[in-house]
Amino acid sequence: SPVFAGRMRECAAALSSYVEWSLFEVLDDAEALERVDVVQPVLWAVMVSLAELWQSYGIKPGAVVGHSQGEIAAACVAGALSLDDAARVVALRSKAILALSGLGGMVSVALPVEQVRERLTEGLSVAAVNGPSSVVVSGDVAELDALLAACEADEVRARRIPVDYASH
To answer: pTM of this prediction?
Structure first.
């Protein structure tokens, strides 16, 4: 879509002041997209560009919300942040997250949040409640390993999220 592509070019230009890579060059680079300091700004650019495309078809949101880099995209789409300010926030935030790499992790647990809270130890906390039975826990790697083992023993579906930092 010319509208989507145009907004992606604008996002690429805005990001170029804050990152050392090109938005269009990393789109088909699986290795680069594994890096949090790349994937989060890329996802932000896609979200902002999709919103522009939808608006070109007459879809005007009454409200926008987001989670993580989606919050930054929502603020940009709503006009609370300029494109340049949003690019700066998403790029610098993703670099800060990269600095936390190796200091923790996250696990998705298929239980209601109240039941997950009962399983938390001192080194763990609820990171996100994604649904009635979908909770993300973040924290210390050893504590997450223990949580995974306990969930497996109780036949509760749980899986490690492939990040090496605790977030949200």
So the answer is: 0.76
